[in-house]
Design a protein that fits this description.
Elements (H helix, E strand, L loop, with lengths): L2 E4 H7 L5 H9 L8 E4 L2 H13 L2 H4 L7 H14 L4
Antiparallel strand pairs: 1-2
Length: about 80
């Protein structure tokens, strides 16, 4: 089961993840807070948001980058979902 929510609602559900900024960067667009997205695993996303909140800033500033495969998977998922809501 999934929930269709706006970016504004998603931001309230996961306040420590910058969804609008992330999607704006990926697609090089300026998304509206009213843009609808599909949210799977709401509880999991809330836990990830809290984990980010509790992660020390010095860890976040480390020069690590996500693996290219992870970036490609995220871009593919976002591209596939775009326009199918």
């Amino acid at each position: 089961m999934y929930n269709k929510v706006t970016l504004g609602q998603l931001q309230k559900i996961t306040p420590y993840l910058r969804w609008k900024w992330l999607l704006d960067q990926i697609f090089q667009e300026d998304f509206s807070e009213d843009e609808e997205v599909v949210l799977l695993a709401t509880d999991y996303m809330q836990q990830v948001s809290q984990l980010i909140r509790s992660t020390p800033h010095r860890w976040a500033a480390a020069p690590a980058r996500p693996a290219p495969a992870v970036c490609r998977a995220l871009l593919c998922t976002c591209s596939c979902l775009r326009g199918h809501l």
